[in-house]
Design a protein that fits this description.
This protein has 417 residues and is an alpha/beta fold. It folds into 2 domains: 262 residues, Dihydropteroate synthase-like (TIM Barrel), CATH 3.20.20; 141 residues, 2-Layer Sandwich (Sulfite Reductase Hemoprotein, domain 1), CATH 3.30.413. The radius of gyration is 25 Å and the shape is globular. It binds iron/sulfur cluster. Iron/sulfur cluster binds next to loops.
Amino acid sequence: MIERRKTRQVTFGDDRVGRVKIGGDAPVAVQTMTAGYTHDIDACVAEINRYADAGVDVVRVAVPERKDTEALKEIIKQVKVPIVADVHFHYQRALEAVESGVHKIRLNPGNISDRDQVNKVIDACKERGIPIRIGVNEGSIIERKDKQRRAEELGMYFEGHKSGHLLALMVAKLEEYLDIFDARGFHDVVISAKSMDAALCIDAYTEIAKRFPYPLHLGVTHAGPKSTGTIRTAVALGTLLSNGIGDTIRISYASDHIDEVKDGLEILYCLGLRTRKGVELIACPTCGRIQVDLFNLVKEVERKLDKEIKLPIKVAVMGCVVNGPGEAEGADVAVFAGDRRGIIYVQGQKVANVPEEEILERLLKECKDFEAKVNRGEAKLGEKIVEIVPPDPIGELGSGVDKIRKGLVEKVTVSGR
Ligand code: SF4
């Protein structure tokens, strides 16, 4: 079990879209942001609801112009999840968004630095019970005047850190902003300190987690295309979350934002921080023993199961008998290939042996039948009915159990998830 950092909690939303809690004992929430124009109301609503259907908890929208904050009035009536207005440069956009009924505001200390303006936004949010995220961002806080000297001076605060000056600036900006909020008695706050550098993200969030009691919104900003962004994000967010740091996450890819939602949820499922919805698909990478066109089979299985199965059924698609039986034993529904055929198991029981061209159809049928059985209370997820005997029996070296029995293996001390 991951022991999560104790933080304050914020709640936002309404009776229609429901309420989302961030921080405290609330599950880690997944966010994304729309990619289209907010003032294009129909497209914006469709985009938000597509993310909601994929499992997102909160969606943020950009409001660079008055017509965007105006559009929020209509958008909020038609969406399925709480909406955050992302405000940069113009504090009036925050005030207008509050007037339009937005559920949460994001302010960037890097580009709204007038104390009176911040106070006006705080007062408006306080009156309506709307939380504010203070989102510092590496890209927008760097000071541009006399940059080199400032960087050297500030770097001394985190000596030996290659980005010490950035860390110092992020912390200083947050402290400065939070002082304004404290003076107003406003604590409905979430904070973030994003960077495109995964290592800096880990250090920045670790540092602010020690200093502030507020819930943290994690993200690697501008993580790039999904191909590399996935790695950067998983490294930074995975490290922080497994250390108990982080209360909501947003992944930023230069691709369809539906991927941000899916990958965000997957990170949380992997760490046991959310209960999985939908299929957990296991598949082998293939090798010289492969017996079928596995990549295409897996792609099709994923696409179809994503649409048709709601329960967190564990499905394994394996290329041959080497690891097939082992995975089949642990999965609810499994197929492993052999001699251009697929041998299909449901909870350890062999149910079919079909030619390659029939594997997909039969596997889907077995998954649907199994889901129906679970829904009728006739089967339980993760239950094993019979042991599958591996075809390559364990030889004289044994399985390792004897060594454990003799006390020759040191006891495992890490806590399980
Ligand atoms: S299951 Fe078989 S084909 Fe797939 S990677 Fe393992 S050994 Fe190779």
